[in-house]
Amino acid sequence: MLHRFLTAAAAVLLAAGLAAPATAQTADAKSDSANIRKIYDEALLRGQSYENLRYLCQNIGGRLSGSPQAEQAVQWGKQTMEKLGFDRVYLQEVMVPHWVRGPKEKGSFKAGKGNQSVAVCALGGSVGTKGKLKAEVIEVRSMQELRDLPTEKVKGKFVFFNRPFDDRLIEPGAAYSAAGDQRRSGAVEAAKRGAVGALVRSLTSALDDNPHTGTMRYEDGVTQVPAAALSTLAANRLSEQLKQTPGLTFELEMGCQTLPDVKSYNVVGEIKGSKYPDEIITVGGHLDSWDLAQGAHDDGTGCVQSIEALRLLLASGLRPERTVRAVLFMNEENGNRGGIKYAELAKAAGEKHLAAIESDGGGFTPRGFGLETNNKATVTQMQKWSPLLQPYNAGNLQPGHGGTDIGPLKDQAKVLIGYDCDSQRYFDIHHTAADNFDKVHKRELELGGAAMASLIYLLSKYGL
Amino acid sequence: MLHRFLTAAAAVLLAAGLAAPATAQTADAKSDSANIRKIYDEALLRGQSYENLRYLCQNIGGRLSGSPQAEQAVQWGKQTMEKLGFDRVYLQEVMVPHWVRGPKEKGSFKAGKGNQSVAVCALGGSVGTKGKLKAEVIEVRSMQELRDLPTEKVKGKFVFFNRPFDDRLIEPGAAYSAAGDQRRSGAVEAAKRGAVGALVRSLTSALDDNPHTGTMRYEDGVTQVPAAALSTLAANRLSEQLKQTPGLTFELEMGCQTLPDVKSYNVVGEIKGSKYPDEIITVGGHLDSWDLAQGAHDDGTGCVQSIEALRLLLASGLRPERTVRAVLFMNEENGNRGGIKYAELAKAAGEKHLAAIESDGGGFTPRGFGLETNNKATVTQMQKWSPLLQPYNAGNLQPGHGGTDIGPLKDQAKVLIGYDCDSQRYFDIHHTAADNFDKVHKRELELGGAAMASLIYLLSKYGL
């Protein structure tokens, strides 16, 4: 029942007065505290990010670069920000890769009498199989294990990369990092040893039948072989069967292909700074998503939170002193062309970027922000704001990573900032058919947008 | 895609070495850090709490005090701890209330031509309606508003308590606190003014059709009138209709009743302290749950985490220096008889309680612990352990509330400790038909058990 909430004095006090936190001492801190409270009130009582996300997910859906849905999303982003009355809303043209999955992929292996179908999907960027591709399978757990194998053990086979997530790691993102070489480089490393394809265990701790897609790459001079993800359950089944039937054959059928590049856009919405219009704070997420689902947590949430952050400032009467831009980047998933283009244009225009913030780790309960900068004084200065964000459980300001889209701004911005939220559920659905609107929690999403708006408020008031 | 995890140097380092945190300086701190890492490894690689919870939820299910399922749960708890080889497993007899819901409740109001059915459920402890109870409805938002009404406006009617959660509050638990008087005292306050029943808006921010049950109380000398919860959508519909049809009648049918008290049990599992067996650390959750669902987050998670905390210590080779007890308390939801009995028996036996920990806020991602004590030095001492828990995102040790079951130990224990986890989703499902196993996330649950075991390890090593 949790009676504690019925008796906790602090909770009741907070309920009664919504008191500013005790950390607010100076006049500035008091006014900052009150202003951040305004931002949160607006987000929690009249937040628009959840309904914006509903539209993006349910009316547009998955929006891989080059797809018609990606273009619909560009128009949606532009119109959404125009309706909110930002000072300026515009598109930045950028050519993006155009990879298409084709018909639903098929995978199976011979177990006992018949073929056993397993859940597979093409990795993004993979070539297709040109009909059915049938070959034996050799399982490895690491690139080193593959390199140590005699070529004749690999030649003509599928290499099956089956290293699971290291569940000991507290952040699933660290496990993703540690297992990610299999997806990114598996096909290239397999092809170098004469393999005909790569089968990759899905990058997740979850045991289910959702294959996880995600980008892979080829290398000049290395044969391009197909690469597919297996669901974790499929990977376990295949691994078990291989112990009993080392010579079993796997059959893969994928019709994916890469088409010519397509014209697309970043979407930019801007509020001009009232005092220092030439100093820019960018906040963004990426508008493109994988095609298997609605792209809710990856990264619809980052897009709607970025738009919301600007709306919250205006609606709270906190017009920023520095220029603030919400940027919906195109093509994070398989090329980062939008992020690169944004930084190029900023440089060409001689823009002065104070900070860039990205939300691309899902729309879960906030924890704080990761700060990417070589300047320790910047970290120290920003950490002084922690008490203002702590009442909202968003005060964890630590050195960390910004984000892929804002990465190319590294040499132009004083700090790159990654929005940090609870990460335990993210890789259950990441890049799968399950990354849909129903996985997003309204308040968790709103709290994130408010945290981002609050940080922007402080950055825009105090500078760096 | 979240490329940041593919490049973040810290993540890769951690992945490679699972290095002890940099905060570990002294030899003691180094060994503590390594031991806590052992606890987490055990939990994350070989954790048993999730499968234990699956059994409790899916094979036993809802287990309100006095029900056959509550007794099955007692046997399950005893056998589970016996199998784990704790030094001593025993039951503490306690008489508990026995309230039964009866057939599914019915509620409807007349809107336009026909009756509109709405989702209702009896509040725990309510009397039934003895057939159909039909009356007009008067809506109020607060007890004061009710008190200010002339008696003739209330007499013979249902009082409809429709104050929603205050969504501005960051912790939904604080909103629960602020709205909770309606459920607890609504029936009594309504009856004092001659009303025939109380209709209470469900205690949640979620807008859906799940009514939320929960305990209510009567007062000597005040007529006992039936009290029901309306889903938030039903409450909104009724409120809207009342504006159009102030004289509308509501019809309620509930067959609930309170039967004579029943014999039940707390379940206690104990590991004897190797150095100071007379100093006791209790860790617990409550075994009873509301009857509408499986009682997963409330409080199956607290039970399996408490058992797991002891198992983790043994499996990690960290036999505690002080005595540690896992206690599955009976009857938190509607009486707290188990918690009271445990404290009584402890007092009668002259036991020395060092600390008592409760997990009863759901099994979500850990944040830390709330410390309830009048002794500031205890808080200061415990906060020094924060760096050891921070690498696991469980280092937030702040003054707070312990828990209902351990509350009666307040005068006997040096500190009461409430396990603190992310709370945004808890009140969506709390006391509803949706509080089922599928809402619990394996890693979130396991991280909680490991956090509790780690704190117990420190308490048992250093004392207070």
UniProtKB/TrEMBL annotation, chains A, B:
Subcellular location: Endoplasmic reticulum; Golgi apparatus; Lysosome; Secreted
Signal peptide from the UniProt entry: 1-24
Alphabetical UniProt keywords: Carboxypeptidase, Endoplasmic reticulum, Glycoprotein, Golgi apparatus, Hydrolase, Lysosome, Metal-binding, Metalloprotease, Protease, Secreted, Signal, Zinc, Zymogen
GO biological process, one term: peptide catabolic process
GO cellular component, one term: lysosome
Subunit composition and interactions: Homodimer. The monomeric form is inactive while the homodimer is active.
Protein name per UniProt: Carboxypeptidase Q
Native organism taxonomy: Bacteria, Pseudomonadati, Bacteroidota, Cytophagia, Cytophagales
